[in-house]
Design brief:
It holds the Pfam family SRAP. This protein is mainly β. About 5% of the residues lie in helices and about 35% in strands. The structure holds 4 DNA strands.
Length: about 240
Amino acid sequence: MYLPAQTIASFFLILNEPDHPPRYNIAPTQPVLAVFQSPAGRRGVPMRWGLIPHWARDIKIGAKLANARSETLHEKPSFRTAFNRRRCLIPADGFYEWVAVKGRKQPYFIRRRDGNPLAFAGLWEVWVAADQSELVSCTIVTTAANREMTPVHHRMPVILEPGQFDRWLDPDNQNPRSLCDLMRPMRDGGLVLQAVDDYVNRTGNEGPRCIEPAATFPTPSSPPEPPAQMNLFED
DNA sequence: CCAGACGTTGTT
DNA sequence: GTCTGG
DNA sequence: CCAGACGTTGTT
DNA sequence: GTCTGG
């Protein structure tokens, strides 16, 4: 079968962080707000996007680790330890995906239909540089695309609901198998896509123009509603 | 044992 | 740090 | 993820 | 084509 032109999944995202200017175009290696569970409660701190394993010699490895596949997290040397002990949430108003069409890359902005922010499942890590300085970094966990995402890409970030936050963040839960049910595609129908101006394609560009609707490209149509089905993902 | 990798996406 | 390939 | 560079010698 | 910077 010939699929529509492909996409990417880097989840360049929008972030509105209290007391900081809003960001509309966060790229890997840039700081993103991440929330984790500390003994004193939940804390949000800026972390470098792109996880740097504690054993890394070179900071550059982080650029390749912006995402972590949920299916294999538990066995990857780069993610295993963080998965067991350092899970986090990464809040965002939305994220982008691109579809390559005739030598062009058409970006789409994806947000919740209900207007609330998203909470991506993430992992974080502390890396000690050669000069002994510490750098905290994070990665976003991915899973298969849900119905709305399928027209633009076959993967999507794991998006958690408030009722799931505690379990995901609990540092005392070091049993990966008990977390499998959290790492599923978001329920169908919860997201909306909007084709936007390719201003966002340049990482140096910032501001609301990144989510300005594109005049010439329509939102891709979703496949028809599936028939009534068994509950495969037991929520 | 030592040396070298350690990742995701999408592309063909 | 830990695993894999040689 | 996307955009942009992709090099050496010698100069300040 | 592949790597780097953002």
